[in-house]
Amino acid sequence: MPEGAGAASPEAPAHTPALLVIDMQNALVAMAYRAAGTVAAIARLQERARAAGAPVVLVQQGDEELEPGTEGWRIVPELAPAPGETVVPKAAPDSFLDTELDAILRVRGVTEVVVTGFATEICVESTARQALSRGYDLVLVADGHTTSVRPGPGPYAAPEASVAHHNEIYRNLRYPGRRVRVLPAAEVGFGGGAPAAAAAG
Hints:
Strand order of the largest sheet: 3-2-1-4-5-6
Distance between the termini: 53 Å
Helix content: 25-40%
Shape: globular
Radius of gyration: 18 Å
Order of helices and strands: EHHEEHEHEHEH
Largest sheet: 6 strands, parallel
Structural class: alpha/beta
Number of strands: 6
């Protein structure tokens, strides 16, 4: 018998996505561009992830400007964690830095992070890049991240331009051995075929 004949072929690792909701806190959402639409998009993703049994992990910034326990520090009510869901406190833009996030994802067998939240160029960007460096596949939700409104002209890009810029960067980003996608919330699935919102449309 030839070597290996009749042996079971090794199974590919299971694809396990997790929804990551970054810094969607009262004080930050209050200054966010397209806040209501972003919150609504993330809320729909939470519903679908929960229905599919996919992990939902919320990340919550705490520092001198977002003092833990204050109203501004709290996660907006529309995105509040369900019983048993994990909230990861952080103090830096990178949600993995000096936190338990990586360990939480690995113990759940997560292979892909679906990234949403605030702010596009800071905590969302820092976390997305670090997820790729740590070996995760990535979905950046095109309408599920946002940044602050900037009054008047200045050196920063306008918020709509910043969101569009980062979406385009990630559409063209290549990491060896990783899958990087930019999808609207309606097209994000958490296993079991097409997402309900996309199928209904």
